């Protein structure tokens, strides 16, 4: 009976963890590296905005861009790895809360803007943890550039 339970537990853990090939394929097919870079850039812009009080007028647009980017990127879930999915889901929810609180806190609700900044920082840490999970599973970190080289273009 214990052996059956142990085998079932191992099978459940294995099912929750994606393997190198499936996670690598997911990273490639979803362009996760680019999406990661987009969210980190959004978070960085909002972080700069929220360091000023009151924040600059561009803050509302920056928070709205984050909402739009999250909407586009949320379709990447689920991943083939349950832990990675949980990390990204948490990051997306933290960023969504940050963007909502940011817009609601403008132009000068200091408490709401402070909360938005804390949620933004939490999202950044969760995104870094997700990238670390990818590296653990696949053995490499995906490129995170948002710049695509066009063959025959200025850079290609």
Question: How would you explain this protein's 3D organization?
Answer:
This protein has 156 residues and is mainly alpha-helical. The chain has one domain: Four Helix Bundle (Hemerythrin (Met), subunit A) (Up-down Bundle), CATH 1.20.120. It is 73% helix and 0% strand. It has 6 helices and no strands. The protein has helices spanning 2-16, 20-30, 32-50, 58-73, 82-105, 110-138. Helix 3 packs antiparallel against helix 6 (110-138). The longest helix has 29 residues, at 110-138. The chain is elongated. Residues 1-16 and 148-156 have low confidence and may be disordered.
Number of strands: 0
What is the CATH architecture term? Up-down Bundle
Q: Gap between N and C termini, in Å?
A: 62 Å
Oligomer: single chain
Helix count equals 6
Helix content: over 70%
Give the DSSP E fraction (strand runs of 2 or more residues).
Answer: under 5%
Overall 3D geometry?
elongated
Unreliable runs: 1-16, 148-156
């Amino acid at each position: 009976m214990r052996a059956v339970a142990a085998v079932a537990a191992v099978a459940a853990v294995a099912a929750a963890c994606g393997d190198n090939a499936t996670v690598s394929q997911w990273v490639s097919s979803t362009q996760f590296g680019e999406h990661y870079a987009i969210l980190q850039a959004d978070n960085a812009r909002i972080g700069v905005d929220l360091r000023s009080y009151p924040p600059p007028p561009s803050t509302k647009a920056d928070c709205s861009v984050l909402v739009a980017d999250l909407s586009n990127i949320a379709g990447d879930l689920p991943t083939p790895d349950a832990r990675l999915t949980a990390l990204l889901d948490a990051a997306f929810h933290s960023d969504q809360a940050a963007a909502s609180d940011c817009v609601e806190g403008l132009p000068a609700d200091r408490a709401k803007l402070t909360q938005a900044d804390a949620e933004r920082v939490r999202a950044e840490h969760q995104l870094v943890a997700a990238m670390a999970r990818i590296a653990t599973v696949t053995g490499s970190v995906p490129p995170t550039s948002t710049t695509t080289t066009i063959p025959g273009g200025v850079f290609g």
